Amino acid sequence: MQRFLADGSFLRVYLALALALLLTFGLALMGLALVDRVRVEQYREQLAEAPLQLLAWRVTALPAHERGDWLTQQSDMLDMRLSLREPESADLGWFERRRLERGRVLVKVHDEEGWRLYRRLPREERILEARLSGLNERQLRGLAQMLGDWLAEVDGAARQRRLEGVTSEALPVQLRNLAPEGLDSHQLTRLRDGELVIRLLPGHWALTVHLAVPATDGSRQWLSIGPVSALEPTPISLLLLVLVIMLGVLAAIIYLIVRGVEARLARLELAAGRIASGRLDTRVKVDGGGFIGRVGMAFNAMAAQVQSLLRSQQEMIRAVSHELRTPVARIRFAMQMVEDMSDDPAIHRQLHGIDSDIEELDQLIDEILTYARLDSGMVNGAELERTQIDGRALAERVIETLAPLHAHLRLALAPGSEVEVEADPRYLQRALQNLVANACRHAQSRVLVRLSLESRLVRLDIEDDGPGVPAGERQAIFKPFARLDDSRTRRSGGYGLGLSIVQKIMAWHGGSVVVDDSQELGGARFSLLLPRGMNGRNKLTIKPV
Questions:
Q1: How does DSSP classify residue 324?
Q2: Phi/psi at 328 (nearest 5 deg)?
Q3: What is the three-class DSSP state of 209?
Q4: Which residue of 335, 343, 352, 525 lies most exposed, with the fewest beta carbons within 10 A?
């Protein structure tokens, strides 16, 4: 099931990335189509700007009763249908009417009706409409001839002003006193005879129209319209720009997808780490019903089940430990009564042995209760009260407490600088005392305690010159009631809970306990590793059971 879920998860991620790629490809095509459409519309408007400007000026200059006949005449000559329309009668939208009001040219292309060109007449509300099926040479010749006749009506500065009014970026118009360059003798002859000459520029997909314009003084000037260039393909630089934009959009989409999945998986990882450290009340916030949401729900259910099982186990251990104290107390009371009733030395020796066993059982119950109290705190999410502790003073107190009990051993604290530890003083002392007592049980003659500071942690080493711990058993000895068969047997004392209690205390402090070989004494070396720089926030105190 988990494998299927994992496979389904990756499949969904891959499908999401594939959809993102398809979406980006579609956006790229739409972007290119939109860019080409804008370029075509802009080219058409620039191309129609000068001719419509000329027609609008010519119509405006005529009396109202002559405009209809003139438009009909020009329609036949230019192979297009010219008419004047009221703004309300034209089939135009609000934005299109606003464009005409600002003096711009409007070009509408219909598949069936062809082109429709609109321009507002100067200083009037009416609109000039031109309908044509397409561009041809007849229109080009007719507009060029109309422009030449219109310029021939005036001379000097007035002619220049008219020329500047019809010049646009797509349709440049020039008036020279010298004959145009690049024409052969036949074209120059035709041009001098008053004909219109169209010249195709090789390699540029453009053409130029030349025309002679007579002046009032009998001289003439040479009118050049163009070059009129065809619409060029989309530039490579523009295509690269669109590609870069699309790749940026794709990268952003993939980043958002991966970031969302990573953020939710990071929450799962954080929750798993907190549960692994013993905070079983941790739960994952479930967002949505996707595969990660289902994993989060399964994770929460697992954590709740584990927490319930451990809580039940701890409650049973505490209950059993408490219930054991009552029969132990009755046995001890009965033993004291028997001791008072008899003076037989043999009986007293037996009773003394029973008393030692009862004392050992009491100590075992205390160890079990301590272990259950620590484990219960881990399950319920309680935290220790941490304060700043002088590590060397703490170690000296432990050595002073245990040294009289092991007179045959030399317990010593290695020299060094002062070390401050942020921890719960009671439980840290309990952990250190357990390790020193454990070392005393197995040492031959020496036990050494050493404190040191590392980059991110405080280290407390407890070394002895005993037989050491085999490498294969170094993880097992921290399990409850674990004992080694060779060097650490029941004859050496202990109940198999001391190291488990140390491990619980260190885990609760966010640290750890490790064991390896002592390089100086040759026996075992147990090390308490505590993180440095803990923040002193509000803590919950573990209350005795």
A1: H
A2: -65, -40
A3: strand
A4: 343
Distance CA 99, CA 24 (A): 33
Copy the structure tokens of residue 458: 């405080």
Please list, in sequence order, all residues whose beta carbon lies within 8 angstroms of the beta carbon of residue 286, skipping any fewer than 6 positions away: 293, 296, 297, 300
Tokens of 361: 């059982």
Which residue do the tokens 């579609």 mark? 26
Measured CA distances, 26 to 35, 164, 253 (Å): 14, 44, 14
Question: Could you tell me the CA-to-CA distances from 235 to 45, 168, 208, 396 in Å, in that order?
Answer: 20, 22, 24, 83
DSSP type of residue 290:
S
123-to-16, 59, 102, 375 alpha-carbon distances in Å = 58, 12, 12, 93
Cα angle vertex 204, ends 202, 209, to 5°? Answer: 75
Determine phi and psi for 135, rounding to 5 degrees.
Answer: -85, 140
Distance CA 76, CA 88 (A): 27
7: enclosing H helix or E strand: helix 2-60
Are 108 and 130 spatial neighbours (Cβ–Cβ below 8 Å)?
no
Which of 426, 515, 435 is CA-nearest to residue 474?
515
**Nearest one of 286, 307, 308 to 297, comparing CA atoms:** 286
Residue 274 region, left (φ>0) first, then alpha (ψ -120 to 50), else beta? alpha
Longest CA–CA separation in the chain, Å: 162
User: CA–CA separation, 359 vs 491, rounded Å?
Assistant: 16
Question: What are the distances in angstroms from CA 150 to CA 58, 61, 143, 153, 202?
Answer: 8, 11, 10, 6, 30
Q: How far apart are CA 138 and CA 151, in angstroms?
A: 20
How far apart CA 45 and CA 108 sit, in angstroms, is 10
The answer on pLDDT for 393 being more than 50 is yes
Burial 200-235 (b: 16+ CB within 10 A, else e): eeeeeeebbbbbbbeeeeeebbbbbbbbbeeeeeee
Q: Read off the pLDDT band of 486 (50, 70, 90).
A: very low
Which residue reads 């130029």 in tokens? 208
Listed as own residue / partner, the contacts of 405-413 with beta carbons closer than 8 Å and 24 or more positions apart are 405/440, 406/440, 406/447, 408/445, 409/440, 409/443, 409/445, 409/446, 409/447, 410/445, 410/446, 410/447, 411/436, 411/440, 411/447, 411/449, 412/446, 412/447, 412/448, 412/449, 413/448, 413/449, 413/450, 413/451
Q: What is the rounded distance in angstroms from the CA atom of residue 469 to the CA atom of residue 523?
A: 8
- Please give the full DSSP string across 107-168, using - where no structure is assigned: EEEETTTEEEEEEEPTTSS-EEEEEESS--HHHHHHHHHHHHHHHHTS-THHHHHHHHHH--
Tokens of 34: 């939109």
Query: 345-380 vs 291-341: helix axis angle to the nearest 10?
Result: 160
Report the distance separating Cα 211 and Cα 183, nearest Å. Answer: 12
**C-alpha to C-alpha distances, 462 to 274, 478, 507, 518, 529, nearest whole angstrom:** 29, 16, 18, 9, 12
Reported as a single tens digit per residue, the pLDDT across 73-116 is 888 888 888 888 888 777 788 888 888 888 888 888 876 667 88
Query: 284-294, pLDDT tens digit by residue?
Result: 877 766 677 77
